[in-house]
Each structure stands twice: as C-alpha cells, then as structure tokens.
Specification:
The complex is a heterodimer of chains A (about 180) and B (about 120).
Chain A: H1 9-31, H2 45-78, H3 83-104, H4 110-133, H5 142-166, H6 168-172
Helix pairs in contact in A: 1-2, 2-3, 2-5, 3-4, 4-5
Chain B: H1 3-24, E1 32-38, E2 41-47, E3 55-61, E4 64-71, E5 74-79, H2 86-89, E6 99-102, E7 107-113, H3 114-117
Antiparallel strand pairs in B: 1-2, 1-7, 3-4, 4-5, 6-7
The chains are: A mainly alpha (about 180), B alpha+beta (about 120).
Chain lengths: ~180, ~120
C-alpha cells in the first residue's frame, strides 16, 4: 500500500524503471509467442510487473502505471486504437480491476492474483472482440483460453511472489503472506 | 500458495471443462457447414461434405484480399493482409462450434452442424 498520497521523485523513478521492464518483457515474450499453442497468446510477463506494482504501490499508482504501459505498448507495437489495441485494452482493464480488488481484499497470494489476472485478461479480450465482431461465437475460444490462462497465470503470479519476497520495501511493511 | 489460490485454480479448471463441453462438444459430423461472414453479413455458406478438393476462396477486405482455404473436413485462413496474422496461425478448424476470427478485417469463419441451420423455416430481412 502507498505510504503517502504524494508521488515522490523516488516513486516516479522506480515506476519508470518498472515500466521500462514491463515493455521490454512484452517485446521479449512476443518473440517467443510461437511456443504457446494459441496464436496471439502471451505468457503475461508484463502482468508480473503489474502485480508487483499493485502490491508495492497500491491501486492508484498501479492504475497510472498500467495506463502508461498500455499507451506505450500501443504506440510501439499495435498502433493506438487499432482493433488489436482495443482488444488488449479490454483485457488489461478487466484484469486490472479484478486483480486490484483481489489484492486490496487480500483474497489470494500473488499466485491467485496472477490466475485472476490471466483469466479476466482473456475474458476482457473476448468481450471486446465480441463487440467489434458483433458475434457470440467467439465464446468458443473460452475453453482453450482458460486452459492456457491457468498455467501462465500461476507462472506470472509465482514470479511476482518471488520478486516481492526479495523486495526490501515490501518485506519491511510485513504484509507478505505466503 | 494459499488455500484460496488452490480453490480459485480448481474453480477455473472446472469452468474450463464446462465451457469445453458447452461450446465444443459437437461431435464430428459429416455435414458441417462453413459460414463466412464479413462485417456481420453472411457472404458464403459452404457445405463441406460436398467439397471434393482443397479450395481457395479469396475475399476482398479493407486492406486487400483475405484468402480462405477449405476442404472436406475443415477450413482455415490461407493468408490475410492484417497486421498480426492471428487468424492465419490459428490453423484449421474441423468441428462444429469452432471459429476463426480476423478482427482487423472483420472476417468470421464458423463451422455449424446442419441441424442447427434447419431451426428456421425462413429468415426475413
């Protein structure tokens, strides 16, 4: 949770570094995307960074962080407000909302948060695609998306947990639950 | 890992299995119809049973031409001018209920069983 409401230079610097890391990871994983069985699927390493930011900086700053990430990824890769961008935006928004609620209420460890994020990211993407295409037949993607979302969600959440356990600013507050 | 994490994972897995049976449990049927839509309009309806050879079907889209391929047991997107090529890499669909969507080009391929098509006596527009 944020210790104060004011965004200090230190916070901004840290968030900036994490933002750069998230975008670099997004780029890196798109080059190994062919390893996953579904085209267009990602491991979600960028989401690991979002989870870390959620735990370390709280909902408001994480929302700011994710907005910056979505806009930058849009500018760099997909183009702003292209169909691909809008689908990603839907996924990011829905997954962020559920992860923020899950973290705030401390329902899960970072693993559960990762699984939540992966699942609702997929749901958000399908919803936007369904609106764009005006069809419900895209729901047939749901089983495979869930099947991929569970292991990738566990992986990204686990990774975030490993990072948080080693993060001094997080351990200090004594709120890490195994 | 906490107990809640495990519960969540199990719930997701069950949801996934249910979704599988709900959307994709359609058995291999002999008379599958390939429905091609562009911007919500049905532009082609092909009974795959009657298809003898591997066929390529070019469809004009905003950015050029999207080429659909089909044969007796399924359909795929051969090539597309869209940027991400998700539709092409999805490969072949063979079962009723399966879908390939190319969102940038607004093309939708669906396979349906023939019984479903007979629900309506007529469609008025």
């Amino acid at each position: 949770m944020p210790s104060s409401d004011k965004l200090t230079t230190r916070d901004m610097t840290q968030l900036g570094i994490l933002l750069a890391a998230a975008i670099a990871l997004r780029l890196a994983e798109s080059t190994v995307a062919y390893l996953l069985p579904l085209p267009g699927a990602h491991l979600g390493l960028a989401n690991t960074v979002t989870i870390i930011v959620l735990y370390l900086y709280g909902t408001h700053r994480a929302a700011l962080f994710l907005t910056a990430r979505v806009i930058l990824t849009g500018l760099l890769f997909t183009g702003l407000f292209s169909p691909g961008f809008n689908i990603g935006l839907g996924g990011a928004t829905l997954s962020f909302l559920t992860m923020a609620v899950a973290v705030t209420h401390n329902w899960f460890s970072s693993i559960g948060v990762g699984v939540c994020g992966a699942f609702f990211h997929n749901c958000g993407q399908i919803l936007v695609a369904m609106v764009l295409m005006r069809t419900t037949s895209l729901l047939s993607y749901l089983p495979i998306l869930i099947a991929i979302g569970i292991p990738t969600g566990i992986f990204t959440g686990l990774l975030a947990g490993v990072f948080l356990k080693r993060s001094p600013s997080y351990r200090k507050e004594g709120n890490f639950h195994e | 890992m906490r107990k809640n994490d495990l519960l969540l994972i199990v719930a997701m897995a069950i949801l996934g299995v249910l979704a599988y049976f709900f959307f994709l449990s359609g058995k291999k049927q002999s008379n599958i119809v390939l429905v091609v839509r562009r911007d919500r309009q049905v532009i082609r309806r092909i009974e795959l049973q009657k298809v003898r050879t591997r066929t390529k079907l070019p469809i004009p889209v905003d950015d050029g031409e999207l080429i659909i391929g089909y044969n007796q047991d399924g359909a795929w997107v051969e090539s597309s001018p869209c940027p991400d090529k998700v539709c092409v890499r999805q490969g072949k669909i063979t079962r009723p209920g399966e879908t390939i969507a190319c969102v940038p080009e607004k093309i939708l391929l669906t396979l349906t069983g023939t019984e479903k098509e007979n629900d309506h006596d007529a469609i008025l527009r």
